[in-house]
Amino acid sequence: MATDISISCAQKFNTCDLCDNPIQHFCNRCQVSLCEDCINKHVRKQKSLTHEIAPFKEGVIQIIFSECRFHPNWRCEAHCQQCDVPMCMMCVITSHNGHKVGDITNIFNEKKKKIQEEIHEIESSILPRSTKKNVDTETGITKFMNKYAELEKETEKQRQVWHQEVDIIFNKLSSMIQSMKDDHMAVLKLHQTKLKNLIADMIETVDQNKKMLKSNEVSQVNNFKPKVEEYRDIPEVTDVLIPLLKTNTVQGRELSIELGEWKATLAQTFTKELLDKAKVIATFSTGIKPLFRVVCVGADKSWVTEKGRTIRCVDMHGSVHDTVTPTLNSSDDSPKPKEDELICISVNRKGELMYSDYNNRTVNIYRHGRSEVMITTPNDWNPAGLSCTKSGDILVNLYDGEHNKIIRYQRQKVKQEIFKDENEKPIYGSGEYMLFVAENNIEDICVSDRNVDTVVVVDKAGRVRFRYDGTAARRKETFDPNELVTDSMSQIIMTDWKNDCLHIIDQDGQFLRCINNYGLSKPRGLSLDSEGRLWVGLFEKGDVKVIQYLK
Fold first, then answer.
1. What is the 3-state secondary structure (H, E, C) of 142-160?
2. What is the rounded CA–CA span in Å between residue 178 and residue 186?
3. Three-state SS for 365?
4. Contact call for residues 72 and 41 (beta carbons, < 8 A)
5. Over the stretch 519-531, which tens digit does the pLDDT of each residue have?
6. What is the layout of strands, in order, in the sheet containing 511-515?
7. Are 483 and 493 in contact (CB under 8 A)?
8. Who is most buried in 130, 394, 416, 424, counting CB within 10 A?
9. Could you give the CA distance from residue 216 to residue 221 in angstroms, rounded to a whole number?
10. For residue range 154-184, what is the model confidence (pLDDT) as tens digits?
11. Whether this model's pTM surpasses 0.90
12. C-alpha to C-alpha distance for 161 and 481, rounded to whole angstroms
């Protein structure tokens, strides 16, 4: 059963398939090249088959049929179209009896055509296009590497520029120190010269007085004028005040150095732009009404509180992951802040929940499933708003029923009190509302004071930097600030209860924008997650809206 694909054996075979001797014969039945010595060997090996031995020049390439796996010594020369398997003649009359039989040679030839078509398409189209894309990719990689080489070169250039700036700062510092030293040395040298001259004058006076004591001349003695009063007032050594060199190093944020009134600062700031229009990423119900506080943990969870009774940890789907129920001392008769806000919450740098217990005058931490007391406040002062700073200190608003102050605690030790300005006037207003507090990246302390409808910002030393009263935002109702947060650019974001919006100002108090859509009805709780998104708690609805406001 010869195929229509026939070529001369001389084009394909050179030596015997059973040894290395030159080809002399060809078995057309088995498609094997043979020498004279191997003919008998080949016939004996396949003695069950009928062989067709021909001179080598008459041999043609035919299809080599596979041996049937069910019937030894039979070859599969047909194809069962029903079962889509090759079969021998014994299969045709036994297991495949009655099945539609196809010519395996036609199938073979069709497959050969498809193989040829595939080779043609790959060689003529796909391979050239892939080769071109590879060349283009190689070119792109070269350009890519060149661009990065330029970027690295520019970075090194800028490194030198920045180093030059640092050198300029320290050269200036060295020059100032040298100048101060020269000035102070000149003062000391002048003082020393005066003392030397005075000492020389005193020695001369003593010598003259001794001579007069030995003299008997009336006129000489009578001309004596005492100088001792001049000498008694010995000039004091000039007090030269050497300025202190102050440095502040906050790793990855700011470097500063001060000498007297002179100060140099290198600050590292990565800025992001405000979106033209903020986006609501998610809205979910907390199951708490009214909803007071919202404090994020990571990127997808937050602690929320009701009216000072229960604290829950919920995720962005509203699922509850943990619940804390503080033990409140109901017999406490201390003056309460407005709306009985007995508990405020925050998280520390490890993401652990902290909460102020107004009645028990404690600040607590919740870890490993239990609450522990961190701070106990002084008598007559109850803790309210609180937050953790980047250094790990705890800022706590203390309230006595009328007056407010901010205390910085380092562990349980009071490190700083902020309540009066340089003129001994109260920084914060008196009234029935507690304060909310946060620290920004430049260590300003930002406070929302609802008693005077103002956000007050003081520097780390407690000096007032500015006050923001909401006028620049031009809202319909009076500014009514509640909770506030600061972001990576030291911008301050605060909720405005009466105007159903958020205000955003920069670190110097300049108004930037309001977020006043998306149904922010009675916004109260406010927090930033680790992705820089705002979580806004709606007091009456008990919902939280997650808002992206930065690009």
1. HHHHHHHHHHHHHHHHHHH
2. 12
3. strand
4. no
5. 899 999 999 998 8
6. 481-486, 492-496, 501-505, 511-515
7. no
8. 394
9. 8
10. 888 888 887 888 888 888 888 888 888 888 8
11. no
12. 44
